[in-house]
Design brief:
- The chain is an alpha+beta fold.
- It contains 8 helices and 13 strands.
- The strands form 5 sheets. The protein has a 5-stranded antiparallel β-sheet, with helices on both faces.
- A hairpin with a 3-residue loop joins strand 10 and strand 11.
Length: 304
C-alpha cells in the first residue's frame, strides 16, 4: 500500500507545481504584454502639454465685482475674483444665442423680421423685412441689436420659447451648471444669469466656431436686406478691438447686471480670455488687466 500511495503523492505535487508555474507565466503575459499595450495606446499626458503661470503675481485695482482670466487652450484660470458667484449676464447672453443659431441655420438662410421694435438697442429692421442669417448674426454681435437676436429666436422651429429651451439644453450639455437663459437677448436680469467662470468657458467654446470668431473681431460692416434697398451700417460696441491683441468677444449692460465685457486677447500664439462682470467701467478695468498680463505669462512644458 505504501508503495502505491507514494507515486500518487508525487503526481499530485507535480500537478500543483505545474499549475503554479503556468499561472505565473500567464500573469507575466498579462502584465508585460496586454497591460503594456493598453498603456501605450492611452498615454496619460503628452510631451507638448503647456501649463501657463504668471511670472509675477497680479493684484488689479478695478471696479468689477467679478473677474476671470483664463488661458483658452489649457482652460487654466490664471486669476479670479468671485469666479463662482452668480451675476446677470446682460447681452453676453447673445454668445449662446449665436451658437444655437449657428447650429440650426445655414449661412444664407433667409429670416423674416417679425417684431419691429424691441426694448433696448435696435438696429432698426422693419416688420416683414427679410435678411440672410449671417447678416442678422453680425447685427446681433456688433451693435448688439436686440431686434436681431429676437429675429433669430422667432424664426426657429417652434419660435422663441423652443429657441430658449435649446439654449438651456446646450448650456447643460456644456456643463455650464450655474447658467440659465430666459430670453435670447439678456433682458431678463433675474433669470438670465451665469458665473464668470461659466461665461469664460462659454466664450472659449464660442471661439472654436470660425464664423463666430471672425464676426466678433469685426469693427464695422454694412449689410442690406434681401431687396438691397435697406442698408444698415453696423459698428462694434467693443472699443478695445485691435488694442493689445484684442480680437473679441462681447459687451453687455443692464442696470441690474452693470457693465459686462468678455474679451479675447492673442499674445505669443496663445489666446487669453478675460471676463469682467458688474463693473462700473468695463473697458478701463479690462485695459488694466491687459496691461498686467502682457508679457507676464510663462508656458511650462509638462513631460510624461
Amino acid at each position: 500500500m505504501k508503495g502505491y500511495k507514494r507515486p500518487l503523492l508525487y503526481s499530485f505535487l507535480f500537478a500543483c507545481l505545474s499549475f503554479l508555474v503556468t499561472t505565473a507565466i500567464f500573469d507575466l503575459f498579462l502584465r508585460y504584454y496586454i497591460f503594456d499595450k493598453k498603456v501605450k495606446e492611452v498615454p496619460l499626458t503628452t510631451s507638448n502639454a503647456l501649463y501657463p503661470v504668471f511670472k509675477s503675481e497680479i493684484n488689479p485695482d478695478i471696479t468689477a465685482k467679478a473677474v476671470v482670466i483664463m488661458d483658452n487652450e489649457s482652460k487654466t484660470v490664471l486669476f479670479s475674483k468671485n469666479p463662482n458667484l452668480v451675476f446677470s449676464m446682460a447681452s453676453t447672453t447673445k454668445i449662446m444665442t449665436a451658437l444655437v443659431g449657428l447650429e440650426y441655420y445655414k449661412i444664407n438662410d433667409v429670416l423674416t423680421i417679425k417684431t419691429e421694435r424691441v426694448e433696448g438697442v435696435n438696429v432698426g429692421f422693419k416688420m416683414g423685412e427679410k435678411l440672410n442669417f449671417v447678416d442678422i448674426l453680425y447685427a446681433m454681435l456688433l451693435p448688439s441689436g436686440n431686434d436681431a437676436a429676437l429675429a433669430l429666436a422667432q424664426n426657429y422651429r417652434g419660435g422663441e420659447e423652443e429657441f430658449v429651451k435649446k439654449m438651456n439644453e446646450k448650456a447643460k450639455s456644456l456643463h455650464l451648471i450655474n447658467t440659465n437663459f430666459a430670453d435670447p437677448i439678456g433682458l431678463e436680469d433675474s433669470r438670465d444669469y451665469t458665473t464668470p467662470l461659466d461665461l469664460a468657458r462659454l466664450a472659449s467654446i464660442a471661439l472654436e466656431n470660425k464664423i463666430l470668431a471672425n464676426i466678433v473681431r469685426t469693427k464695422t460692416l454694412q449689410i442690406t436686406d434681401r431687396t438691397g434697398k435697406n442698408k444698415y451700417l453696423l459698428e462694434n460696441l467693443n472699443k478695445l478691438l485691435g488694442v493689445s491683441g484684442v480680437n473679441g468677444i462681447k459687451t453687455g449692460y443692464t442696470t441690474e447686471a452693470g457693465q459686462v465685457l468678455v474679451t479675447s486677447k492673442e499674445e505669443g500664439g496663445h489666446t487669453i480670455i478675460i471676463v469682467v462682470m458688474d463693473s462700473r467701467d468695463r473697458f478701463s478695468d479690462t485695459v488694466k488687466l491687459l496691461n498686467l498680463i502682457s508679457g507676464n505669462i510663462n508656458y511650462l512644458s509638462i513631460h510624461p
